Structures are given as C-alpha cells and as structure tokens.
Amino acid sequence: MVRIITFLLILTGLGFHSVYGQQRTPRRPKKPVNPYRRTYQQGKFLVPVDSTSPQIPFVHFPGPLAKGTSRATLGVTFTTSPRDITEEIQISIPAGDLIVLHGLTDKLALTGRFTFQFLQNNASVGLRYSTPIKGKFYGSAGADVGAWFGSLQLAQFNNRGFGIQSAPNLAIGFRSSRNLLVTVRGEVDLGLYYRSRVGQTVSDRGEILLNGYGGTVTLEQAFFGQRHVALGFRALYTNFNWQFWSLYDTFDRNIFYPEAFIGFFL
Questions:
Q1: pLDDT (tens digit, 9 = 90+) per residue, 247-258?
Q2: Beta bridge partners of residue 263, listed in sequence order
Q3: Does a structural domain hold residue 6?
Q4: 8 Å CB contact between 11 and 18
Q5: What CA–CA distance (Å, rounded) separates 209 from 78?
Q6: pLDDT score of 123 more than 80
Q7: Predicted local distance difference test score (pLDDT) of residue 33
Q8: CATH of the domain at 70
Q9: CA-CA distance, 180 to 222, in Å (whole number)?
Q10: Shortest CA distance to 178 belongs to which of 63, 54, 62?
C-alpha cells in the first residue's frame, strides 16, 4: 500500500512540473518577414520574394530587384531597313544583344546593354527605379546613356561614325497568374553628339536633338526546363537610327524602324 501511494505521489509531482514548465516557458517572437529577401536556387539568386513578386528572372520587367542581385540575357536583335532609305532593297540587320540588370537597392537598379556587329557597336548604361503599383502591376522610370561607333572601309570609301545618345523611359509591367511577365515601355530618343568622317571630310554636331520616340513590348517566361527567354518587339519612330548611320539619308523627317529581339537568360 505504501508503494502504491508513493508511486501516485511521484506521478502527481511529474505532472505538476510538466504543466508548470509549460506555463512558464516564454514564446519566441516571430521574425519580421523581409519582402525583398532573396531565395537561392541552383546556384543563383532569384527575384525578391513577396506575395506578388514574380518567381522567374527578368531584365525588362519593371519589378523591384533585390540589392546585389544580377540578371543577364544574351541573344540577337533584328532591325529591318526602311524603304525610304534603301528603296526596293530591304535588309534585315542582325546584331548580338547583351542586356544586364544589377540591383543597387531594393528598388533602384543599374542597367546595361551592348549591341554588337562586325562593323558597328553600341554600349549603354543607365539607372532604373521600379516599384509595385497595385496587385500584379509594376512600374518603372529610368534613363540610359549610350555611345555607338561604326567603321566602314572599302577600296574607295573610308567612312567612320561616332555618336552619343540618351533614352529617358517609362514602363508598366503585368505578371500573369502563370508567371508570364508582360512589359510595355515608352522612350524618348535624344541625340547628344554626332561625328562622322568620309575620307578627309568631317562633320560633327554637339547640340541636344530630339530624334524621335520608341515603344517596346516584351514577354519574359519559362522556355525549356530551367531556361527562361525574353521575346520582344520594338517600334522606333525617329529621324536617326545608329544602325544605318552609313547610309546618310538626305531628308529630315522621322522614319519607322521595326525591331524584333530574343534573349536567353544566362
């Protein structure tokens, strides 16, 4: 009988200790969720994580990019020569296209683009401020400054050109439920400096000129497996297009230049 009473007292003491310990144990406070934290997958940082941010990489989409995160695409762009310049002959000029996006802060990013051919190249850098608008819509404002250089040397034709341009721009993006990123961007084409040389004849211009305007529609989505792709179309309505600097049009009016491009994420 004494053993039974002792056993019951021990069980009662253990139960009281367990209940008392549970009541006295303080709860750990939950850590605040950083909406711009980065996830790590397959050796690469993805885009900022919140309830609405896209979970696929992007360079055109105006969504915020986490600080220190980089994105890049490598592809090709095609621009068709207008009939106003080349008349009956239309030439589609392909060029390599490298686009880089690097997050400086949670909303400010550094942009870079390098379009390269055998005889002419264009490199530009800029800043872009991106922010969510509402729901699945995002917006950005930015400006790019770039320089182009071309050289065309034939037996009786020695031609070189150089110029500096700027492109202030605004963009609106929409993320679909399937993580298809749609971006519409508008830009202003400003000429800051132009210099050309044909033989011993040199022509230069240093004033700021409004060359024209441009609009771009871009789709960014998954392509195959873990690969992603950016597809786009750009309509440029301008008085000067650096890719056709060597044709020297003799009229002063805006011309429509269609451009299609594709880029694969690195």
A1: 777 777 899 999
A2: 75, 230
A3: no
A4: no
A5: 25
A6: yes
A7: 44
A8: 2.40.128
A9: 8
A10: 54
Which structural domain, as residue segments, surrounds residue 220?
55-265
Tell whether 21 is covered by a domain. Answer: no
Q: How far apart are alpha carbons 224 and 264 in whole angstroms?
A: 11
Q: How distant is the alpha carbon of residue 246 from its chain centre?
A: 29
Look at residue 35 and tell me if it is in a domain.
Answer: no
- Write the secondary structure of 97-120 as one string of H (helix), E (strand) and C (coil): EEEEEEECCCCEEEEEEEEECCCE
User: Closest Cα to residue 246, out of 75, 125, 124, 118?
Assistant: 118
28: phi > 0 → left, psi -120 to 50 → alpha, else beta; which? beta
Q: Judging by beta carbons within 10 Å of its beta carbon (0-12, 13-18, 19+), is residue 61 exposed, middle or buried?
A: buried
Q: Answer yes or no: is 23 within a domain.
A: no
Residues 229 and 200: beta-carbon distance below 8 Å: no
Tokens matching residue 57: 């990489």
Residue reference for tokens 């004033």: 207
Question: Tokens 């990013």 belong to which residue?
Answer: 109
Instruction: Work out the average pLDDT over 222-241.
Output: 90
Give the total number of structural domains in the chain.
Answer: 1
Query: Residue 157: its pLDDT value, please?
Result: 72
Closest to 159 (Cα-Cα) out of 171, 170, 169, 151: 151
Q: Which regions of the chain does DSSP assign to beta strands (E)?
A: 40-41, 44-45, 70-80, 92-103, 108-116, 120-134, 137-154, 157-175, 181-198, 201-205, 209-224, 227-238, 255-265
Q: Which of 27-36, 138-147, 179-188 is predicted least confidently?
A: 27-36
pTM above 0.85, yes or no: no
